[in-house]
Amino acid sequence: MPVRPRFSFDSDYVRRLVAGDPDTERHFTDYFGDLLTLKLRSRLRSAAQVEDARQETFVRVLTTLKQKRALATPESLGAFVNSVCNNVLFEMYRSHSKTTPLEEEAGAALPDPGIDAEMAVGLDEDRAHVRSVMETLPQKERQLLHWLFFEEADKDEVCRRLDIDRNYLRVLLHRAKQRFKTEFVGS
Which residues contact residue 185 at a Cβ distance below 8 angstroms, ignoring those fewer than 6 apart? Predict the structure, then answer.
C-alpha cells in the first residue's frame, strides 16, 4: 500500500465533518479507512470482523463528534479515531471470550472421528453422553443450546423467537453453557 502523507486536521475540517459535508466525510473515511484496515487486519481473524470493527469505529467517532458538535483539539482527531478503534477492539475481544463456542468447552475431549474404528465407537458414546446431559437441562436452556449449536440458528432469529434482546441472549447462553459444562464434566 502506498504511503500517504500525514494530513493536518484543523477546526474547520472537524466543523465540516460535523456538518455532514460529503467531500469531508469521503476524505475522512478514505484517509482513516486504510489506516484502520492495516491496524485491524493484524489483530482480527477475518475480513468480516475487520470491516465490522472499522465501520463501528467510524459510526462512534462521527456520532460523538456530532453530539459534542466539535473536538476540543482538532489536531488530535487521529488520536481520537485510534482510541475509539482500540475500544472497539477490546469490546470485540471481550465479547468473543465470553461466548466461547460450546465445542471448545465441553467437546474438547471428544475424539477425532477420522482416527480409527475404536475412536468412532468412543465418539458414539460421547454423543450419547451429550444427549443425556442435554436431557437434564431445563427446557429453556436445552432449547436455546439446540437452536444455536445443533440447528445453527441465527442469534437474531433466536432473539425474535424468545422475544428478548441480544444482551439478554448472551446472558442466557452463558448460563446454559455453564450448566451444560458442569453437568457434562460431573457425570
Answer: 106
Q: Which three cell numbers stand for residue 35?
A: 489506516
pLDDT digits (tens, 9 = 90+) for 35-65: 898 888 888 888 888 899 999 999 999 998 8
- For the chain, the residue count is 187
Window from 48-52, 83-87, 116-120 with minimum mean pLDDT = 116-120
Average pLDDT across the chain, whole number: 81
H, E, C per residue of 126-159: HHHHHHHHHHHCCHHHHHHHHHHHHCCCCHHHHH
How many other C-beta atoms can be found within 10 angstroms of the C-beta atom of residue 60?
Answer: 15
Joined together, the cell numbers standing for residue 140 give 429453556
Cβ–Cβ under 8 Å, residues 17 and 63? no
Cell of 128: 450419547
Kindly state the DSSP code that residue 6 receives in the 8-state scheme.
P
End-to-end, the C-alpha distance of the chain in Å comes to 55
- The closest alpha carbon to 130, from 66, 51, 185, belongs to 185
